[in-house]
């Protein structure tokens, strides 16, 4: 098994320096959000370290792993940018020995979201949206919302992604819409 430093070395070697900086930002932010909202900061940091482990793997390799290991069939019909999350969870378990299902799910759903996101899912997904290196229209609004509403901030994150996909007439993974609606319901 890998200790924290070994895991960091193994994961960082699989991506360009800039993407590793992003992961560093997600780690820091996930711990802050976990402390703020009552999630386990150790689990949040572990999920953050691994969340983008497969982000820079070749698309053919992601595709091959999805097929070979019978990972989500449905995802294959949607945007390739969603695949690294599913493969990342698989690799976290099989290669890096993560056994905690909460951590594996936070990795698996960090991009798409899901209905009934756990506290840990929300923390990791929101940290991914708002880490200090992120710069997209609306990110400061998300950071402000995150000071008082985990669900409000994350819903704003999904609104931003869905709006971006709509503006480019791209296909939206239905689970993202369901995840967003579920968060809005939790705000009512
Ligand atoms: O891996 P990161 O860039 O840190 O962040 P991410 O895993 O959230 O990014 C995934 C990308 O996937 C993001 O730029 C938007 C794109 N995408 C394409 N289709 C969908 C989608 N994201 C979501 N949530 N839902 C989609 O249907
Ligand atoms: Fe990602
Ligand atoms: Fe995300
Ligand atoms: Fe990320």
TrEMBL record:
Under the heading InterPro entries, the entry gives: Diverse_Catalytic_Enzymes, HD/PDEase_dom, HD_domain, YqeK
Q: Which GO terms describe its molecular function?
A: bis(5'-nucleosyl)-tetraphosphatase (symmetrical) activity; metal ion binding; nucleotide binding
The protein's matches in CDD domains, at most eight in alphabetical order, are given as: HDc
Q: Which residues cross the membrane?
A: none
Gene3D superfamilies recorded: Hypothetical protein af1432 (1.10.3210.10)
Catalysed reaction equations from the record: P(1),P(4)-bis(5'-adenosyl) tetraphosphate + H2O = 2 ADP + 2 H(+)
State which Enzyme Commission number(s) the record gives: 3.6.1.41
Name of the featured protein: bis(5'-nucleosyl)-tetraphosphatase (symmetrical)
- Taxonomic classification, please? Bacteria, Bacillati, Bacillota, Bacilli, Bacillales
């Amino acid at each position: 098994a890998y200790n924290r430093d070994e895991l960091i070395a193994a994961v960082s070697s699989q991506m360009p320096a800039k993407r590793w900086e992003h992961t560093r930002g997600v780690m820091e932010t996930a711990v802050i959000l976990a402390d703020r909202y009552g999630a386990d900061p150790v689990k949040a940091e572990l999920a953050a370290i691994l969340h983008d482990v497969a982000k820079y793997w070749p698309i053919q390799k992601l595709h091959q792993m999805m097929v070979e290991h019978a990972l989500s069939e449905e995802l294959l019909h949607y945007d390739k940018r969603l695949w690294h999350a599913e493969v990342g969870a698989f690799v976290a378990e099989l290669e890096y020995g993560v056994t905690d299902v909460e951590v594996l799910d936070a990795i698996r759903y960090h991009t798409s979201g899901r209905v009934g996101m756990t506290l840990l899912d929300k923390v990791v997904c929101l940290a991914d949206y708002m880490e200090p290196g992120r710069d997209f229209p609306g990110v400061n609004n998300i950071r402000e919302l995150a000071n008082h509403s985990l669900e409000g901030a994350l819903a704003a994150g999904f609104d931003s992604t869905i709006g971006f996909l709509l503006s480019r007439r791209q296909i939206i993974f239905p689970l993202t819409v369901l995840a967003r609606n579920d968060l809005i319901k939790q705000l009512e």
